[in-house]
Design a protein that fits this description.
Layout lengths: L1 H35 L10 H11 L2 H18 L11 H44 L4 H43 L6 H33 L7 E4 H18 L3 E4 L7 E4 L1 H18 L5 E9 L2 E8 L6 H4 L20 H11 L4 E5 L5 E8 L8
Parallel strand pairs: 2-4
Antiparallel strand pairs: 1-3, 4-5, 5-7, 6-7
Helix pairs in contact: 1-2, 1-3, 2-3, 2-4, 3-4, 4-5, 4-6, 5-6, 6-10, 7-8, 8-10
Length: 379
């Protein structure tokens, strides 16, 4: 009996979410038709908020429904020829831009829900810790310290979502608004579309970093390990970062390791580790500087080192490098401070270690170890 009541309640909730998507889309259509009586009005003006509301209160399903229905209504009512599904090249670009914005909004809302869920779970843990405080002075002090860390982590998660996801979203919305101008030159329209697409990819990377952090804290981070040669890891890093290094006037060198040296690891996650570290090295290395990758095998492990000729890191900052949301330059907004924290979590998930050595004014070396593949160990 209770099971049927619960299923009935879930069905009603699901129908309500989709009904909301239909309602806000209909309101967007009516509002656009009313404003068009007084003069030209962008076709997508009210449909973007409709998708955002559907994504926030309903989730991906209702958001997809609102997006599809919006495109259909716009095509039938506002794109020439009226009442037809035929579209020209300019209209196709506008539709693509709307889809990018809708997908970005939906993904952002999902990431925000994940972050809020993480924050709420940590708030619950904080409440439980506070209830247990008082058994002894030492125990109370330790628990208070943990509670402060949990509260701080909650604020940091919400702050990252609010700041670092909102700004790219504003860029996409601004670009899309300009795309809706009827007399925009095709070259300018293409440029704005590329800006929206590039910013969408940036948001996707930020969301991926946030979700990886959530999985690590929740203990649900998994690996798909196989034998990966260090040479292939270095080759992929060179292919990815050499154009960036050349553009900035930095010499990137990957020193080939001993023939046949391989690690037992998840290839995607290893490329993520190397990418985060090399990306940081290039970001802080000045023009005509050097970034070098090298590796050495030692018993059951292989150590990979990334050395740069950047400004170096103050001793007091070394201990914080691998903390969540921490950045050496507080006014640097080129990242959210998760790259090295994720690299540390991935390395430790493989059973390795990661560390940094640096002298201010003389560059830095970031190193990490991975298990050596059995087939490549010396007899």
């Amino acid at each position: 009996m209770f099971g049927s009541i619960r299923r009935s309640g879930n069905l009603r909730f699901s129908l309500t979410r989709y009904a909301l998507a239909l309602l806000v889309t209909a309101i967007a259509l009516v509002a656009t038709l009313i404003l068009r009586r007084d003069g030209p009005t962008p076709s997508f003006l009210f449909f973007v908020p409709a998708v955002a509301i559907s994504a926030w209160y309903g989730g991906p399903g209702p958001a997809a429904l609102a997006t599809s229905l919006s495109l259909l209504l716009i095509d039938l009512n506002f794109l020439d020829p009226g009442g037809s599904l035929l579209i020209d090249r300019i209209e196709a670009l506008e539709i693509i831009a709307f889809i990018i914005v809708a997908a970005t909004i939906t993904t952002t809302m999902e990431a925000l829900h994940h972050a809020l869920a993480l924050a709420e779970s940590r708030a619950t843990a904080l409440k439980q810790l506070n209830e247990e405080v008082g058994r002894s002075y030492d125990s109370e002090r330790e628990k208070r310290h943990m509670a402060e860390l949990l509260a701080q982590a909650r604020e940091e998660v919400l702050g990252v979502v609010a700041h670092d996801l909102r700004n790219p979203l504003n860029t996409i919305i601004t670009s899309t608004d300009l795309l809706l101008q009827e007399r925009l030159e095709p070259a300018r329209r293409t440029e704005l579309l590329e800006v929206a697409l590039r910013t969408g990819r940036q948001m996707n990377r930020l969301i991926g970093d946030l979700l990886d952090t959530v999985r690590m804290h929740a203990g649900k981070f998994t690996l798909d390990v196989e034998d990966v040669t260090v040479a292939s890891i270095f080759r992929q890093a060179e292919e990815t970062f050499r154009p960036i290094a050349e553009k900035r006037g930095i010499y990137l060198e990957a020193v080939p390791p001993e023939n046949g040296v391989a690690v037992r690891a998840d290839p995607f996650r290893v490329s993520q580790i190397v990418g985060n570290i090399v990306g940081n090295a290039l970001k802080f290395t000045p023009e005509r500087g050097n970034v070098t990758l090298r590796a050495d095998a030692n018993g059951n492990h292989v150590a990979i080192h990334v050395t740069d000729t950047g400004p170096g890191i103050p001793p007091n900052d070394i201990e914080h490098l691998f903390d969540d949301f921490w950045q050496a330059r507080r006014n640097d907004h080129r990242g959210v401070g998760l790259g090295l924290a994720i690299a540390k979590g991935v390395v430790e998930a493989h059973g390795g270690m990661i560390w940094a050595e640096s002298t201010p004014g003389h560059g830095s070396t970031f190193s990490f170890t991975l298990p050596r593949a059995i087939a490549t160990r010396s007899a």
